[in-house]
């Protein structure tokens, strides 16, 4: 018995490890595509204008030191060890942090909040808070202006993620295709790179409506091949050109770099920060994988591969000063390998772009769920995989803007400046929100959150300030885009709240509904009438106007309220709250349909079928309960017998 039990335990452990390693492998294609292709453009953007590669190698070694420590402190320490733990039922991203804060403190500006929402299985709270965290929470709840400021902060992060979804495909594909410059003359090159980039981008956006599930199995092998490729090239360049390049990993070289380059070195940080583009994707895509899978994939494969790639490029450049005006990834690739590497780079850039485009669709759907974005058509691209969506209007807008950026900027420097500012803004927003989560949700002493905020915030502010100096050289684009999107999102959210307040103020009493009948010339016609409203109680004013204009309504009347709850997902069994409005004979009901911010709303046909089925279950339950029968099914979370209206 013991032997059998032991072998069972070993088998389950092996299966769990296999599953974990499979998730880690799959995460390469979905999450790390953007981060892994950054070696294509980091050095090229850094040495664009502000600093020059000299014979002393102080610049290239200083940049390598900055890249190493930035990759170590931000993606590894901040995200892998801290931020990824701030998950919301396994989900990550800006809205996950906001959702956590809204559940632990009354800071949400969303209307129609109910006590019943707290009984959801996904509405879990942490342990009781400490006194210090309670003070911070009370201060935050007390000042309404802070609620608005918090929402604006979240919207800023969201807008910059959308901006990144516009800029990442442009800079990734353009940087990959620019490898052609070493294989053709400059006259041919300048007329080839932009059209080829635009063609690839058009193909990429045109294929979006097919979804990624058909080609998704190719994503991980492509990124894995790319990581192995840059690792091998890095090792080759280190061994062949400068085996002592590892010494540049010392922070002392950062000090020497800043001492020599001064203002130019500080401004060049706007290029260095591109080495961490895509780090936020680890947190945003947390729900698709697991914390342990991300740890394994990044710590044991992505991180070492990137460090070797950057060290290899630095080793090559330290021995080649004649190419000071043409610093880039491809000059460190041996001539015979450039075409194969170019092909892998283009494929990897497409995979990285695909991930950020899918993420943009997802975050717009979340914004829409929280009443912060105008209603747009959301198409499910897979019947089997939840959350794979396509938004036609957003897709074509992104494609047009992406091509416009490629044609307008025509170089890596301006695209990098724009992308860098967007990325660093998102990271600053994540740092601020995580600091609040540490206090309010994790109930840690405020000093811990302050240390986290000051340490990582100061690093990110340094890079952010360097990005702002590039305002006229491309950084204006994400700022302009963010202002435009934030205006739309904030106005839409404000109007949504005002509409709810108007409906709440003008709602009609239950007595008015019960008084409607033949004596007033009102007829009940066969069928089920559905009245949509934002109210969770009372009779909406639009129904009274309907009856005034058309003195008839259906024999079965259902007031349906579709509302968002600050949780990522609402289990299907808990989605519907059904109750009577008035006495049983009136046959009027209220159905509250709850969605989380990552839930994708059902199409009309399936929604109506589900609604009617839940209504039938409730009527059956209500009849058995009224007649004192013991044979009716047990009441679950989807049923309510509140008849107060």
From TrEMBL:
It is found in: Cell membrane; Membrane. Its main location: membrane. Keywords: Ion transport, Membrane, Potassium, Potassium transport, Transmembrane, Transmembrane helix, Transport. Residues 23-514 form the K+ potassium transporter integral membrane domain. It comes from the Eukaryota. The chain crosses the membrane at residues 20-40, 60-81, 145-163, 217-239, 264-283, 289-311, 341-364, 389-409, 421-440, 446-464, 476-495, 515-535. It is a multi-pass membrane protein. One of its GO terms (molecular function) is potassium ion transmembrane transporter activity. One of its GO terms (cellular component) is plasma membrane. Residues 526-612 form the K+ potassium transporter C-terminal domain. Belongs to the HAK/KUP transporter (TC 2.A.72.3) family. This is Potassium transporter. It comes from Salix udensis.
């Amino acid at each position: 018995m013991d032997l059998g039990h032991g072998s069972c335990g070993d088998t389950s452990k092996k299966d769990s490890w296999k599953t974990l390693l499979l998730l880690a492998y799959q995460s390469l294609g979905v999450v790390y595509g953007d981060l892994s292709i950054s070696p294509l453009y980091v050095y090229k953007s850094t040495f664009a204008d502000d600093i020059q590669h000299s014979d002393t190698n102080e610049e290239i070694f200083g940049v390598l030191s900055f890249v190493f420590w930035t990759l170590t402190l931000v993606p590894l320490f901040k995200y892998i060890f801290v931020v990824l733990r701030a998950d919301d039922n396994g989900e990550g991203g800006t809205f996950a942090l906001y959702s956590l804060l809204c559940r632990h403190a009354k800071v949400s500006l969303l209307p129609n909040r109910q006590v019943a929402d707290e009984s959801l299985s996904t509405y879990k709270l942490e342990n009781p808070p400490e006194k210090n965290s309670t003070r911070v929470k009370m201060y935050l709840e007390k000042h309404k202006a802070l609620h608005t400021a918090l929402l604006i902060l979240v919207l800023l992060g969201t807008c910059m993620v959308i901006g990144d979804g516009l800029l990442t495909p442009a800079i990734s594909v353009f940087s990959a295709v620019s490898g052609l410059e070493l294989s053709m003359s400059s006259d041919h090159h300048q007329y080839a790179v932009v059209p080829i980039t635009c063609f690839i981008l058009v193909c990429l956006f045109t294929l979006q409506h097919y979804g990624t599930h058909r080609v998704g199995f190719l994503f991980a092998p492509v990124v894995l091949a790319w990581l192995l490729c840059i690792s091998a090239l890095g090792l080759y360049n280190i061994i062949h050109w400068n085996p002592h390049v590892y010494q540049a990993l010392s922070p002392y070289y950062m000090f020497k770099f800043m001492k020599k380059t001064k203002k130019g070195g500080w401004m060049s940080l706007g290029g260095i920060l591109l080495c961490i583009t895509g780090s936020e994707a680890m947190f945003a895509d947390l729900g698709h994988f697991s914390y342990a899978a991300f740890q394994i994939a990044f710590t044991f494969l992505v991180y070492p591969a990137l460090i070797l790639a950057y060290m290899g490029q630095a080793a090559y450049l330290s021995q080649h000063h004649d190419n000071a005006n043409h610093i880039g990834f491809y000059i460190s690739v041996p001539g015979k390998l450039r075409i194969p590497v170019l092909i892998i780079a283009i494929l990897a850039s497409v995979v990285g772009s695909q991930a950020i485009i899918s993420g943009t669709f997802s975050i717009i759907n979340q914004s829409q769920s929280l009443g912060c974005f105008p209603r747009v058509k959301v198409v499910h691209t897979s019947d089997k995989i939840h959350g794979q969506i396509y938004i036609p209007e957003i897709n074509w807008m992104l494609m047009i803007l992406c091509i416009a950026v490629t044609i307008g900027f025509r170089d890596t420097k301006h695209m990098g400046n724009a992308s860098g500012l967007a990325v660093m803004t998102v990271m600053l927003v994540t740092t601020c929100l995580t600091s609040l989560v540490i206090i309010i949700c994790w109930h840690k002493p405020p000093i811990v959150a302050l240390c986290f905020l000051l340490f990582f915030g100061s690093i990110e502010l340094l890079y952010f300030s360097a990005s702002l100096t590039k305002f006229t050289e491309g950084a204006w684009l994400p700022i302009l885009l963010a202002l435009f999107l934030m205006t739309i999102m904030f106005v839409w959210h404000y109007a949504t709240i005002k509409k709810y307040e108007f409906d709440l103020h003008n709602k009609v009493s239950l007595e008015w509904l019960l008084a409607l009948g033949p004596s007033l010339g009102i007829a009940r016609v066969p069928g089920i009438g559905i009245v949509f409203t934002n109210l969770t109680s009372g009779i909406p004013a639009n129904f009274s106007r309907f009856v005034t204009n058309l003195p008839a309504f259906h024999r079965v009347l259902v007031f349906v309220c579709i509302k968002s709850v600050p949780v990522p997902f609402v289990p299907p069994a808990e989605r519907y709250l059904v109750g009577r409005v008035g006495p049983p004979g009136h046959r009027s009901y209220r159905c509250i349909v709850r969605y989380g911010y990552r839930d994708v709303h059902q199409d009309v046909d399936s929604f109506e079928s589900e609604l009617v089925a839940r209504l039938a279950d409730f009527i059956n339950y209500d009849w058995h309960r009224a007649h004192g029968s013991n044979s009716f099914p047990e009441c679950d979370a989807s049923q309510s017998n509140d008849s107060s209206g």
